[in-house]
Amino acid sequence: MRFLDHRPSAGSCATPDGALAEGRWVKWIGGASNQDLTAIEDLAGLYSAAGVHCLDLAADPAVVAAARRGVRWARERTQRSWREPWLMVSLSDGSDPHFRKAWFDPELCPAACPRPCERVCPALAIPPRHATPPGSGVLEAACYGCGRCLSLCPAGLIEERQVLLEGESVAPLLRQLRPDAIELHTRPGRQHAFRTRLAQVSAAGVPLQRLAVSCGLDDDDGARIGVEPLAAELWQRFAALRAAGFRPLWQLDGRPMSGDIGAGTANAAVQLLQRISPLAPPGPLTLAGGTNAHSLPLIEAAARSRSRAAGVAFGGSARALLQPLLLEAQGRQRRLLDCPDLLPEALALAEGLVRPWLERRRPAELRQQG
User: Fold this and answer.
1) Alpha helix ranges (H) inside the chain
2) pTM of the model
3) DSSP-H helix ranges across 56-144
4) What digits encode the pLDDT tens for the residues 305-328?
5) What is the pLDDT of residue 12?
């Protein structure tokens, strides 16, 4: 079966590097700790078909295999002009909200608890009381660490558990996964930890198209630093990347994992882009953290940020769009990709989010950023 009426836009046919240079690059974020294999396969397939240039995933063999199945599905059903997206895996140089899971003992839950955690979970990782699995009140594979449940538990039972990769595991895992790109999540003050993780990546010997650096304004103590100190941190990372021979890509994390909340979250990443643009080191600047359909109009209205906005990464907003259809397919015990009656709507929704970026008019002042 082919989507006979599916016409990829010009931006979806560009190489990922070409899209970065033109300000039309789009990445789908599966989640650095998301292991919901069925949803990952469905979303990777649909957003690949919609024309994204990169899929960002947990550094997990089963997750990567699921995403590759989704890409294969998209390859078989789109036109020849479609280009396969990069496969990127995420690592961290220390504790990070993207690499955590929520956990609580359901046996300790008060019988009369209204379960606000269940209502607020965007991944549906906290099932109803009667469906709670033994051992944990959270479906570990589905939880991607947004943290919205942590402060809402009336009994204070929910804790976070970090999922970090040991240093000696990095090189053999990367050789197994063979990604096209890597994203390193870092925080201000972690120069030594960043260089250590970077050395582990280098030791793998895997050729990479880009090494992305994801960083925001919050340090390990939760304190918010200024834009100038953040720029200094990025320049330090740039020196380390250049010494190791990697091509940088900067991902500005405005409000992590919040793009599905509403229009207000899109402002954080755009404002950070505006303020950091004159100070940032060479390399494309992309937006993440709170990004959604409102991000591009905000960028186009902010003259100072247009010249450095190389692209965007969609995570929570991308999943929220398709969540009802994912649940419908789940109820049928099938992949969404195998539900022909649901696919036209699913693809239209995915394209509706992605296409404005793919068809974005290239800013005249967008310079080649390396």
Assistant:
1) 10-13, 16-22, 37-50, 61-77, 116-120, 167-177, 191-204, 227-244, 266-276, 295-301, 303-306, 316-331, 343-358
2) 0.91
3) 61-77, 116-120
4) 455 789 999 999 999 999 999 999
5) 61
Q: What is the pLDDT of residue 5?
A: 47
Residue 1, pLDDT score: 42
Question: Would you say 219 and 225 are in contact if contact means Cβ atoms under 8 Å apart?
Answer: yes
Letter string b/e over residues 149-186, b meaning 16 or more CB atoms within 10 A of that residue's CB: bbeebeeebbebeebebeeeebbebbeebebbbbbbbb
Which parts of the chain sit beneath pLDDT 50? 1-5, 305, 367-368
Which pLDDT value is given to residue 268?
81
CA proximity to 318, closest of 335, 337, 295, 338: 295
Q: Do residues 179 and 206 lie in contact, with contact meaning Cβ atoms separated by under 8 Å?
A: yes
Q: How far apart are CA 299 and CA 102, in angstroms?
A: 34
Distance CA 183, CA 250 (A): 9
Distance in angstroms (rounded) separating the CA atoms of residues 109 and 117: 11
**Residue 205: how many other CB atoms lie within 10 Å:** 9
Can you name the residues that pair with 100 across neighbouring β-strands?
162
Helix (H, G, I), strand (E, B) or coil at 139: coil
pLDDT the model gives residue 131: 77
The answer to whether 99 touches 164, Cβ cutoff 8 Å, is yes
| Residue count (the chain) | 370
Amino acid identity, residue 149?
C
DSSP string of 281-323, one letter each residue: PSS-EEEESS-STTHHHHHHH-HHHHTTEEEEEESHHHHHHHH
pLDDT of residue 77: 87
